[in-house]
Amino acid sequence: MSDSTRPSGHPTQTYDSAFLKACRREPVPHTPVWFMRQAGRSLPEYLKVREGIPMLESCMRPDLVTEITLQPVRRHKVDAAIYFSDIVVPLKAIGVDLDIKPGVGPVVAEPIRRREDLRRLRDLTPDDVAYVTEAIGMLTGELGTTPLIGFAGAPFTLASYLVEGGPSRNHENTKALMYGDPELWADLLDRLADITAAFLKVQIEAGASAVQLFDSWVGALAPADYRRSVMPASAKVFDAVASYGVPRIHFGVGTGELLGLMGEAGADVVGVDWRVPLDEAARRVGPGKALQGNLDPAVLFAPREAVEAQTDEVLRAASGLEGHIFNLGHGVLPTTNPDALTRLVEYVHTRTAR
After folding, report:
1. 228 carries an active-site annotation
2. Rounded Cα–Cα distance for residues 69 and 66 (Å)
C-alpha cells in the first residue's frame, strides 16, 4: 500500500510497525507486545512524577501525559504506547461533577438515574480536551516508529459509573435501570456513545495509530443482555471511527461468554482476558479478527521460569491465529516488579522472531 492510500489516521512512520501489522492480520517480524496499564502504577519513575498531583489533573497536563506515556516505552521496549488518561476524562471534560478518589476510583457526585439527568451529558468538542490534542502532538514527535494507542471507556462501563455513583461489585442500580426503563437506558448509552466517539476522534486526528475501547465491567452481563442493551452503543462508537482506517480494539474483563458478540460490535482486534485460552477465544470470535492477550497479570509475581512457561502456553494457544498481539489478560498490577515486564517483552520477542 502506498503512502497516499494509507488510512488517514496512521502516521506514516508507524504504519509498518509489528503492532499495526498484527492488528491488520499481516505477517510480523515478531509477536508485538504491549501491556494494559503499562503507563503508570508499577513504575517508580511514574510515582515520582505523579507525586502530589491528583489523577485527573495529571491527565490534563500534556507534559505529564507525554512523560508518563513514554516511560514504559523507554524501559520495556514495548511495541506500542498507550495514551495515559482515564476513562472518566471525557465525562469530566463536559462538566460532570466527579473525582477519582485514591483507593476507590471514580466517584460521581450526582448519579444519573432519571431522564432529566441526561441533560448533564452535553456533546464533547475538541476544545473541551485541547490538552489531549497537544499531548498527542508531543508524543508522536517523540515516539518515532512506535505507534500510539488512543483509548476510551465503553458506553456500558461509563454508564455503570454514572448510574452507581462509583465502582460497584454487583451493578444493581445499573441493571435496575437497564431492565426497568430500557428506553432511558438506551438513550443514556446512545449519548455516551456519541461522547466516546468524539473523544476517540480527537485522539485519532491528533495522531493516534489505533484505539482501544475498554469495557471493564461488561462481563457482569449475560449475552442476551449485551446483545440487546449494550452492543448497539458499542457498535455506534466503532462505526463512528471506522472511516479513519485505524485498528479498533475491544477489551473487557470476564467477557469469555461475550467474545463473539464483542467481535460483532465492530472491533478489528478482540482483547481476551486470562480466563479463556486464545485458541478457544478464536473459535468463539470467528474468522476475520486479530486477538490480543492474554497472560494472567498475577503470573508476573512467580519465578522467571514459571513466567516463561506460562508465556509459552499463551504463545502455543496463539500459534494458529490470524493475528496476535501479546498482552496481559488485564492491566499491570500496581506491585508488579517492572523488571519482570522488561524480561517478558524480551522473551516474547526472542521466542517469536521470524
Report:
1. no
2. 5
Q: How far apart are the first and last CA of the chain?
A: 22
Q: Above 90 in pLDDT, residue 10?
A: no
pLDDT per position as a tens digit, 210-232: 999 999 999 999 999 999 999 99
Candidates 16, 86, 117, 190; catalytic one: 86
Over range 63-76, report the average pLDDT: 98
Pairing outcome for strands 269-271 and 98-101: unpaired
Tell me the three cell numbers of residue 237: 462508537
Distance between CA atoms of 212 and 152, rounded to whole angstroms?
A: 7
- Indicate which residue of 6, 41, 61, 351 is catalytic: 41
Please report how the helices 182-206 and 172-180 are oriented relative to each other, as an axis angle in degrees rounded to 10. Answer: 110
86 belongs to the catalytic site:
yes
Catalytic option among 83, 131, 161, 347:
161
Model confidence pLDDT, tens digit, residues 125-147 = 999 999 999 999 999 999 999 99
Instruction: Check: CB of residue 44 under 8 Å from CB of residue 337.
Output: no
pTM above 0.90, yes or no: yes
Strands 324-328 vs 290-295: parallel, antiparallel or unpaired: parallel
Q: What is the pLDDT at residue 4?
A: 37
Catalytic residue among 50, 75, 113, 248: 50
Residues ≥6 apart with Cβ < 8 Å to 158: 87, 88, 91, 192, 195, 196
Q: Which of 312, 232, 329 is CA-nearest to residue 276?
A: 329
- 161 as an active site residue: the answer is yes
Which residue among 24, 25, 37, 248 is the active-site one?
37
CB 295 within 8 A of CB 330: no
Other C-beta atoms within 10 Å of 195: how many?
24
Closest by CA position to 210, among listed 125, 287, 143:
143
